[in-house]
Write a structure and sequence with these properties.
The structure holds 2 protein chains of 2 kinds. Chain A has helices spanning 48-55, 78-83, 101-106, 120-131, 150-163, 180-195, 207-213, 236-244, 298-306, 327-333, 343-347, 354-359, 374-387, 404-417, 434-449, 461-467, 490-497, and strands spanning 10-19, 22-32, 37-42, 63-68, 71-72, 86-89, 168-172, 199-203, 216-221, 224-230, 262-270, 278-283, 287-292, 313-318, 322-323, 336-339, 367-368, 371-372, 422-426, 453-457, 470-475, 478-484. Chain A is α/β, with parallel strands linked by helices. Chain A is globular, with a radius of gyration of 23 Å. The chains are: A alpha/beta, B mainly alpha. Chains A and B meet through helix 2 and helix 17 of A and helix 1, helix 8 and helix 9 of B.
Chain lengths: 504, 343
Amino acid sequence: MAHTNDSPLLVMSGISKSFGATQALSNVDLELRAGEVHALIGENGAGKSTLMKILAGVHRADRGAMSVAGRKFAPDRPVAALRAGVAMIHQELNLAPDLTVEANVLLGQERIALGGFLQRRAHRDIASNALAPLGGGEIPLDVPVAQLSIARQQVVEIARALASEARVIVFDEPTSSLTEEDTAHLFQVIDQLRDRGLSIVYISHFLEEVAQVADTYTVLRDGCVVDHGRLPDTDLDHIVRQMVGRELDELFPKVPHEAGEPLLELDALCGDPMPEDVNLTVHRGEIFGLAGLVGAGRSELLRCIFGLDRTPSGTAHVSGRGRVAGGARSSIARGLGLVSEDRKSEGLAVELSIADNLTLSALGSYTRGGLLSLSARDQSVRQWLDRINIKAQRPAQAIGELSGGNQQKVAIARLLHQQADILLFDEPTRGIDIGTKAEIYRLIGQLAADGRAIVMVSSYLPELLNVCDRIGVMCRGRLREVRAAKAWTPEDIMHVATGREVAA
Amino acid sequence: MSEGTNTSSAQAATQAAGRPTFEVVWSSLAPFIGLALVVLIFVVYQWLVTPERPFLSQYRMTLIAKQTAIVGMGALGMTVIIISGGIDLSAGSLLAVTSVVLAVSLRAGIDPVVCVLLVLAVGMASGLINGLLITGLRLVPFIVTLGTMMAFRGVAEIVSDNKKVSYQDAPNWLSTLLNAPPEGSYQGVATGVWIVLALALLLAIMLRYTVFGRYVFAIGSSEATARLCGVNVPGMKLTVYTLGGLFMAVAGIFAFANLGSQGSPTEGVGLELSIIAAVVIGGGSLSGGRGSVLGSLLGALMMTTLESGCGYAGVSTAIQRVIVGLIIVGAVAVDQFVHAQRR
Ligand SMILES: Nc1ncnc2c1ncn2[C@@H]1O[C@H](COP(=O)(O)OP(=O)(O)OP(=O)(O)O)[C@@H](O)[C@H]1O
Ligand SMILES: [Mg+2]
């Protein structure tokens, strides 16, 4: 069949899908031309990932039809989609941690010589060619991916899609764990791919990014298409309105709060090998932000404070409750709580229910004479689901069935539920939509107003600058400089974060 | 800005490149070190207590080689299964099944070569049954093979009428598989040992250089990822368990030779645990994704050396079991400690 440049490369029409009682998608249409970057926008749980998983052969649609280059397309398995030229980079990383970088890039597309032997040289070439344009040129090919940082792991996964020579590539929130520099690289790559005539679907909650990279967009709300169009002709406020379904008054709602007495004191705290020699006092009613590049030791600092990592020297001291020593149990007892950055492997038990995940760290409060009172627990879980607007069917639902953003909300809800006094947030709004971000900022402000102390790591500078009272910038394991948030500019932060001196 | 970031990413790269070398060196050396330690202990014992009786005598080495050939053969198949994230508890029972099938079919007057082929087919079919139950019913390998462990044992008892079956007219090449070669021959070690070494080499090459091997590691490391990338996961699992059955059949033939041309329905009780232990001591991870052929063989050699050494030093079997148990836990603990260091 003849395929011309202006007929769409990919057509999805009338796609519907339900999971039990949840109607994830109803009657969704989407068209994509060759050389077009299409943004898929919507709140957490709007159905973006589900739509793309249908395209990538992970789920099957209940109704609707798809075609690629004029040919009917109904993949029943991911590999069928891959063969037809559709590759997807999933929201949660999908890598085999024990395999090397090279093996992961080529997984499922090995070049095979007679007798099933791998063509190692060809593999190395393909892998390095796929990695190089992503700025992953110096990633060693022979290292198990488990040893790479999350950002680099993501680069490896994107490289896999490039190596597959797909015609349609779906990026499901690819930048949520990338640095600004890596993101810029990624956008260059996407531009190159567009020039080569590939079609890209791009899912992101960062609308600035979307405006920068995409040509066209579709907004999903509750599984329906509510708006679509060309991006240069549309202003972002309009998109946000469509997405949220109402006016969003303010992204950074201000909750008045005031710093009180010191609550958490770090004295020359050292980790192995990071952080180095961190001195810091965080007060009740204070929101303290940690800025820095990926790999600067911010997450490690939180882990050391929480007692997850070894601290060869130095102390973390909670006023009135003594020194933190000996792992998470004692930290929780001292009122510390941590939402870790890697929710899939550390934050949540994917096989367990929402209720289990939410109450895991404070189950004690539901026991009567050693037995668990499930009804009391479910009731309080329901309250939490309402309170921070988690989109779920019921407390007993498996957490793996929630959309990515809603999983993150459960992780945060757990801390609130265990009534931690000092909350350590590692990238708390990663993968969370704008409306919910505002809610979470309000929640954080509220917590500070209640007299709790918050330490929050973020790579999203506007968030740090608007939410925090003080910001410390880390570089290569050291806390370089702490100032009131008002005294920082984004440029200053980047200067310090990259290890240069700031001109006074 | 880019200048600063580049240095930090370059640092990260050298770190990433620097650490695995230590790990790689460690994981390939650890089983050697373990084995050397075990040998050393008994050599020191000999030197201190019984200088007149050498530990590494011809006799003892032959004994160790025989036993290692059987455990090692099983460990080859188990290595693949464990790397793929599975486990096979039915290995010991399958050894009994294949040894009695061999004896019974030989007694029925079937040509020995055909008998051997038959036994290999029985082993593969049994492995295939494990694989089909695991992939078809989506059951955990532990449960499936726990079930077939009992079932296969029962089959061995039925086939043999619950008695040892002996066949003294077995051809030489079969009955002397594990015997030391005659004085002055160039062969050096028993044919069975050569077979183990050859198959080990073949398997190691397959695991390292073929798609098959890569998919085995991929499935064990992350089954979901492998599936997303188009790896035929059920097909791979069927192959892996069938291969495991094949290796156990060869081990069963060895056992027949080792018992003096006898098949026994009670042979190999608990053998699966020694085999699993050998794989784990050799660096295999029960959560999948890690393991090596060489490591498993060394693990098997270490286990049998230890056993034989305990006999030599007059340590009771009870104490011997305690020691073996401690060593298994210790080996895994040390290995985990090393791996934890990198995080
Ligand atoms: N496997 C599943 N079983 C049951 N429900 C599911 C499953 N996958 C998704 N859902 C539901 O379908 C809806 C859409 O989810 P989806 O993951 O597509 O959202 P999303 O738009 O990608 O959100 P996010 O921005 O948070 O990633 C949600 O309500 C989710 O709970
Ligand atoms: Mg999603």
